[in-house]
Model the fold of this input.
Amino acid sequence: MAWDFSTEPEFQEQLDWVDDFCRTEIEPLDLVFPGAAWSRNPKAKALADPLKQQVKDRGLWALFLDEELGGPGLGQLKLALLNEILGRYGSAPIIFGTAAPDTGNMEMLAAYGTEQQKKRWLVPLMNQEMFSAYSMTEPQGGSDPNLFKTHALRDGEEWVINGEKWFTSAGRRADILFVMCTNGMFVVPRETPGVEIMDYPSLHNHVRYNDVRVPHDHLLGPEDGAKVLAQRRLGGGRIHHAMRTVAQVKRAFDMMCERALSRESHGKVIADHQMVQEAIADSYAEINMLRLLVLWTAWTIDNSNTQEARTQIAACKYTCAKVLREVTYRALHIMGSLGTTNLTPLQAMWATAPTMAIADGVDEVHKVTVARNILKGYEPHDGLWPTEYIPAKREQAKKKYADLLAADPDYAAWSERAERAMMRGH
Ligand SMILES: Cc1cc2nc3c(=O)[nH]c(=O)nc-3n(C[C@H](O)[C@H](O)[C@H](O)COP(=O)(O)OP(=O)(O)OC[C@H]3O[C@@H](n4cnc5c(N)ncnc54)[C@H](O)[C@@H]3O)c2cc1C
Done:
């Protein structure tokens, strides 16, 4: 019997270490020196680098990468359990070398880069000596890659890229940009002449590529292979987001339960009011449904690959947005006026729910993927009636008992009574 929801004691020790490390080291750093973990400022690095070193010493650095790609090779299931802790703390992903958008870009480099490309970009990205961004979405529409126009033209030993991208997260601070063109995925150093970063939006940048020239070897993977590389990148990214969302909703739930037991109204603690109990009960069930969906998906990836698990990944993607929206709203509501302020993490968590339903592909597109893939396993029924049409099934079943019904009037009467009862319904 292979179904097992337990965690190996050795790995539980790692999880306990991570939990303690996040609470005692990362959370205080975030509260007093927000942004330090990302900063290149020497004073910030003096605070964050020793923490990153502790993670490396523990063998938990870049834990999303398989062993052959340069990571610890934990697999997605263990990564999911770790992300259930890391996702609670703002800078934990960067302190553990697993922050987006670098993770997805590193995955593409690890899987498709030549040895030289890995040496030039993957190693410095892993060591956080370099940062990257991903330029895929275009201003005229992000959900449909067939609308993208950015193109690279071969000119001797160079590629000349022209196009316009929108919502390139952290593009302004990136050293290299992964640019999805209609004819391939290209690595473009941000300082290259012709890369023009607009003033706004400030975090998720609008970038123009005007006659940007890069050497021939800046094409990543095969020519015309951009969609395949993008799928590889986004598949991993989506499940990692979902794992971290489990952490977020558990955090909101903890706040909800603590407050429910601490606050009084109309003669009792609010935890004794049935509608508050309903909020807790619904949240508990939804969180666990999401968590099990995410863990099952992670397990499926470990036992096949992201492509095989794409229907499950898509289901995780829109479910995590929905559960985040529902649970953070309830938690915020139970917190009353305090919930509407920025004095607890809830207001910011609630505000991320709509973002979660858009980033990495809008919910609608993922729902279409799920429905289409699921329907491939079904056939239309023959004739007018569905397979489960009871009168037809009963006629079939009666053939099985034909001898018995013919031989014994008691059985025949019983069967007729059942038929009349069925006909009395609507
Ligand atoms: C926080 C954040 C970070 C991001 N980071 C990056 C990044 O680093 N790099 C990058 O390239 N992109 C990034 N994106 C962009 C993201 O990938 C796009 O926003 C997303 O793919 C949707 O594209 P769009 O915004 O153009 O919306 P549109 O494609 O215009 O969609 C708008 C709406 O139209 C409807 N719609 C669209 N298609 C369908 C459909 N098939 N069926 C039904 N309804 C539909 C939906 O209601 C949808 O919400 C980021 C987005 C966010 C929010």
